[in-house]
Design a protein that fits this description.
Number of helices: 14
Distance between the termini: 38 Å
CATH topology: ABC transporter involved in vitamin B12 uptake, BtuC
Order of helices and strands: HHHHHHHEEEEHHHHHHH
Shape: globular
Largest sheet: 2 strands, antiparallel
Structural class: mainly alpha
Number of strands: 4
Radius of gyration: 21 Å
Length: about 350
């Protein structure tokens, strides 16, 4: 049993290890070309992100929302849909947390649960137009999710500016009340990370241990077989995007209810923006598997927080982002290759 598990994960682990090494080598070459010391830069990155308790906490705090937005993309891929709507759904989740956490007064445990669940609900509701357009009009999910991402951006900005702004601080929404905040573990890491990890394992159980999950995965891997045995494609579409919306809404909530010191969102959405798109990288690195996404997100959290320590050495911020991008692309290539290959084989079968 143990040997079978080792054999199952041996190749993915080796591919990821080689991709990490390749990514760091290419990044080092780029830095050397621009006159920077790669060894000093990488040392600063690792020492800054995992060399202290605060660094570890900040890296994990950065990883938390990526787990959930990565899960949104992964659930879509398991069902055969390219869901890039986590970005907008996270915005709705963040403002949903503000709506309950800032305005309503409730006891601590009830308030925190209500704000979290409502944020998830807001993210899931934002996925319904995508599901309806896909199921009943055949609109491709990439088109509808990208359009809804933009609508969500301006809609949430409108709500912050005109309805939920903090008096005297028009650039941001009202911070959530203390009864709607997760407990701080260290630096900006809070107990919301446990909620995120629990949701990841719930998704794993649902996808691999239930009939519903089997239907989702079969629809993605073999649509013809799914139709032959009578799986309701409309139900699969709605369930797929609804589950993804719950995860993305929770990701938005983590940045409001579980991220000090501000406990709010800004009108620019600076503390939420790009989480949905960065989650795609986490999903690809984690091979679209909930457990793999957890580790991939932690790795990306280390990179994102450690990058600022490279900048302290004088490495240009744009170059730092480019190097991180090279590493992420290298790690994503094996899964991206499988997705493209599966798509080509599917088209040939038609």
């Amino acid at each position: 049993m143990a040997s079978a598990v080792i054999q199952k994960f041996k190749r993915p682990l080796l591919e990821s290890l080689l991709a990490i090494i390749l990514g760091f080598i290419v990044g080092a070459i780029v830095m050397a070309m621009f006159g920077y010391d790669p060894i000093a830069a990488y040392s600063a990155l690792l020492i800054g992100s995992i060399g202290s308790l605060d660094g570890i906490c900040e890296s994990l705090a950065n990883a938390t929302p990526l787990m959930l937005t990565g899960l949104t993309f992964a659930i879509g891929m398991k069902s055969g849909y390219f869901n890039v709507g986590a970005e907008g759904q996270a915005y709705l989740g963040a403002i949903g947390a503000i709506m309950i956490g800032s305005v309503i007064h409730l006891p601590y445990g009830i308030h925190l649960a209500a704000a979290t669940l409502f944020a998830m609900f807001m993210g899931a509701i934002w996925s319904l137009p995508v599901s309806a357009l896909k199921a009943w009009r055949g609109v491709h999910e990439v088109v509808s999710t990208i359009m809804l991402n933009w609508i969500a951006l301006f809609f949430v900005r409108y709500l912050i500016e005109y309805h939920y702004y903090e008096p005297g601080r028009a650039e941001r929404a009202m911070p959530v009340l203390p009864t709607a905040r997760y407990q701080v573990l260290g630096a900006s890491l809070t107990t919301v990370i446990f909620v995120a990890v629990a949701f990841m394992f719930f998704a794993y159980f649902l996808l691999w241990r239930t009939t519903l999950g089997y239907e989702l995965r079969l629809t993605g891997s073999n649509p013809e077989a799914a139709r032959y045995i009578g799986i309701n494609s409309t139900r699969v579409i709605f369930l797929n995007f609804f589950l993804g919306g719950l995860a993305a809404g929770l990701a938005g909530a983590t940045q409001v209810l579980g991220r000090p010191p501000s406990w709010t969102i800004y009108k620019t959405l600076g503390n939420v923006i790009n989480l949905g798109f960065d989650g795609i990288g986490a999903a690809l690195i984690g091979r679209n598997h909930p457990v793999g996404i957890i580790f991939a997100s932690i790795f990306l959290g280390i990179l994102s927080y450690g990058a600022k320590f490279m900048m302290y050495l004088g490495v240009d911020p744009d170059l730092t982002r480019a190097i991180n991008g090279v590493i992420i692309i290298a790690l994503s290539l094996p899964e991206l290759y499988r997705i493209i290959r599966r798509f080509i084989v599917g088209r040939e079968a038609e």
